[in-house]
Amino acid sequence: MADTEAAIRVEHLKRYYRVHHRRPGLWGALASFVRREYTEVRAVDDISFQVQEGEIVGFLGPNGAGKTTTLKVLSGLLYPTSGRVSVLGFTPYRREKAFLKQITLIMGQKNQLIWDLPAGDTFLLNKEIYEIPDREYERTLAELDELLDIAPLMTKQVRKLSLGERMKCELAAALLHRPRVLFLDEPTIGLDVTMQAKIREFIAAYNQRYGATILLTSHYMADVTALCERVIIIHRGKLLYDGPLSDLAERMAPYKVLTVTFRHPVPVENLIPFGEVVTYEGVRAVLHVPREETAQRAAHLLTQADVEDVTIEDPPIERVIATIFSPEASRS
Amino acid sequence: MRGTYWLLRKIRATLIVYWARALEYRIVLLIWILAMSVPLVMMAVWLQMAEKGDVGSFSRGDFIAYYMANLLIVHLVSTWHGLELSHNIRRGELNALLLKPFHPLWIYALRPLPTKPLRIVLFLPPMILITYLLPDVHFDLHPLTWVALLASMILAYALMFLIQTSLALLSFWMVQAEPLVMIFFHLHMLFSGYLVPLALFPPSWVRTLMWLPFRFTLSVSLEIVTGALPRSEWIPTLGTGLGWVVLFYLITAFLWRRGIRVYTAVGA
Question: Where residue A269 sits, what CATH number does that domain have?
Answer without folding.
Answer: 3.30.70.980
